[in-house]
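re: ur question from earlier - yeah i can do the single chain one, its not a big deal. heres the input i used so u can compare w yours
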Amino acid sequence: MADTTHTTPPIPLPRSAARLLIAAGAVATIASTFMSWTWTPDFPGDLTVYGYPAGLQVIALVAGLLTLLFSLTLWNVRGLRWLNPAGATTPLLFIALSGFAVCWYTALAIAVDLGGLVNLDPGGYVAVVASALPVLGALALPRPGSGARDYFTKPERPAPARPLAGWTPYAVVIAGIALGLLAFTYGIGISPDESETFIGFGLLVLFAAWALTHAGLLDRFSALCAQHKGFATTAAFVAAAIFPFTQSDDHNANLGVNILIFGTVALGLNIVVGLTGLLDLGYVAFLGVGAYAAALVSGSEYSRFAGTQFPFWAAALVGMAASLVFGVLIGAPTLRLRGDYLAIVTIGFGEIFRIAVNNMDGTSGPDITNGPDGIPSIPDLRILGFDFGDQHTVAGATLGRFANYFFLMLLITALVVLVFTRAANSRIGRAWIAIREDETAAVAMGVNGFRVKLVAFALGASLAGLAGTVSAHVTYNVVPTPYQFAGSTPPNSAFLLAAVVLGGMGTVSGPLIGAALLYLLPEKLTFLQQYELLAFGLALVVLMRFRPEGLIANRRRQLEFHATGQLDIPDSPELPDSTVGVTKAGA
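and the output i got, formated as tokens:
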């Protein structure tokens, strides 16, 4: 049970004064966004216009509105109690911190970029002061727990929710997914030249998600999606299909298709790492095997088999089969190893693949892959007369080349998700999870450990090969450079593994979310180009400290990483992700 003892708040104020401070600060923050924050349009977003928020002002406006809505729950305003069912203090603090972080970050960014605080207009000073008031008010409210550390580590359990009837659950699911699509569309639409705006957007998303978690809303939404699994899954894919229609720039559709490719490969790795517990550090090589195999038979004039052009379904089967064969060839002699030894062998395989294709140029080795030059000029796909390289008008919207490939990759992602979930909930899936938890005990109970691990390795490799087939056509060429263990940009083995761990091992949506984050951040934060790996490493350290189970975690991993009493998990149905390895594995 959650702790019901109340500690003395850090700031001694009457409750009525604290509530008023939060609401007044939120209103003042909203008002400041309609003022000029700086005198020059040189700062990204043009924050010089009165009466029209832009750039970071829009993000601060959203943070102020959210803070105001949460503050109104302290007065039990009708229709808003669902935002904070327990009347908890922590969600108020985190939502107040979202506005504080955005406004103060903007002021500091203006001072750094333009050369001093003198470049702030009155609106900027108002925003800085106003955004601090809700934080002070939230710190003046009592909170259950034993100390300040509980603000971050001990969510307060909300009151039991009333069951939703009729069409209401479906409306809530649609609203939640639509909100996620809106946030993703806004974030991906921020120009790489406006990295300051993207950082402010990231701060808002971070603190808002933290607040919703402590309010119990994310748990309730997850339970609702689990109760209506088919509808929620369909709605999620429909939202993804709507995404290209929201974009006027085909570059964003390019980001979308690459995120899907990266996420699909991460899902394949999730079978090996998340379900079976095998540490594979050379997995990106299977993506390369599929890409090269498909490129050789897809009609490129630079291919060793120039003049041969398979239809897409045949090229996809070739890529999957080649990756599967390599998975079996590598797995058969090595899967009797465990832990660090297996990881070392897989790193070696990944490097052997990259070096081999780099030397198969007809001089250093056989003439197969064209060496460092790779296989360029891979023609666009044509399926049933539909040319993926041409623009098409659908429902009044013009969809470019990358949007066409986005829809194709979305269908493949749906197929991979189906394969992953069916395999995880099957007999072989339960054997994978048993191997992951305790291989010795699983073998003693009759599980053929070697065969089970080999199946996981082969299935994961074939899914990566399928994604590699599409990747070869999207990029027009295949070269050895991306298929390495670590680098500054994905995909590489280190980023793939990080996507699985960051998103949540053993889940479906976790690797997809992790892949989206790891692909978008280097794209948007261009000023970190020389320090990407440093920032990446620091982010992983922070995540492993505060959320080791990943962003989307199943119940088992939450219980493994959090001591009893530190985490109150609601007694509600789990997400489809969470059932993997719990209800089926019979832990």
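The beta strands are 6-7, 143-144, 382-383, 386-387, 392-394, 397-399. not sure if urs matches, ping me
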